[in-house]
Amino acid sequence: MIKPGIVVTAAHCVANYGQKQFYTGWQFAPAYRNGAAPYGVWGAATAYILTSYYNGTDGCYQYGVICPDDVALIVLTGTPGNSTGWFGYWYGGGFTSNGLAEITQLGYPCGLDNCAYMERNDSYGYKNTTYSNNTIIGTNMNGGSSGGPWIENFGLPSSLTGETNGSFPQQNVVVGVTSWGYTSTAPKEAGASPFTSGNINVLINTACTAYPGRC
Q: Tens digits of per-residue pLDDT, 141-175?
């Protein structure tokens, strides 16, 4: 969640690229763990993706894969974030002068513990201009992890005693979501469409205008 009642995920989790077709039946279970949903299971009122993803003109590296805008929002039927809290989000920054960022990835990959537990991965990320400017990280997560958040400065900040923070000041901000990986289990990396003013900002403004009570 990046608002009390709004979930960010991958566009391919809610729609069939270029087919002008939305899937249905979305559910969100905060803190799901091995069959338990301590904060309930929430339905969806609607979902938003960019028109370019909907009609198949997003300029993907491969058709429907490794796209600039594989990003979606799901508006929930309520506001579970009022109980659980929610992440911030960020676009257009977070990389060092060498083009690197430290990313925490969360998700439910079915290749680890049979999708039953939320898994965490921490990795350097870098922007690959050939792959539609997607961010690439090293990870062992595979299918099932799609749509999981990529977070910068994850967790509670420590009190500094003889140490300094990095150059990126924002805490607990989602900067992308797991978008793609490899069918082969050999390569241990995944990619994400980076958040930009042209995708996440547009989607948030649209959703919050239509559903201000979820924001």
A: 999 999 999 999 999 988 989 998 888 889 999 99
CATH number among 3.40.50.360, 2.40.10.10, 3.40.630.10, 3.30.365.10, domain 6-84+197-214: 2.40.10.10
Asked if 68 and 132 count as a contact pair (C-beta separation under 8 A), the reply is yes
Q: What are the helix (H) ranges across the chain?
A: 51-55, 81-84, 200-210
Cβ–Cβ < 8 Å for 168, 93:
yes
- Is the pTM higher than 0.85? yes
How far apart CA 44 and CA 78 sit, in angstroms, is: 8
Burial of 121 (C-beta count, 10 Å sphere; 0-12/13-18/19+): buried
